[in-house]
Give the backbone structure.
Amino acid sequence: MVARTYKPLLKTGLHDLTRAGVRFVNRSPGTGTRLLLDQWLRQASIDSGSLLGYGLEEPSHAAVAASMGSGQTDAGLGMESAAAVQGLDFVPLAAEDYWLVCLKSAVNSPAVQLLMDTLQSSGWATQMNALAGYMISSASGQIQSLKQRLPWWAHSTHKPST
């Protein structure tokens, strides 16, 4: 079996994605990856319509990588671990923190306490650090304030009627 090899298409920046013939695969609207891409495109003054395949959407990082791995598309934004599974080249563009969010009233429940213990364990850190693109911080499993970590975010207490 011959593995398909890829040359990274992103050499100078996002404008590389607008080159003729570059087939892009996007994430679904509302995903963090899609929001980040749209922000970057605005900042770079790139019209999303100039990306061939901007409207082609996949629901997960794995699906984006599979689309590229099968040769259907040439570029997409996703996680390094998904790219590694498909044997794709990976160009890191940003690092992200991931948080598990729960209600304050649930923090002391046995299930959440067990989860926090797991996230603080050395075994968890070892497993995660073995995955491409992941790095566990010393804050893993620690309670943090959403208001302090995301000061721009406002929680709506209004519940929509059904």
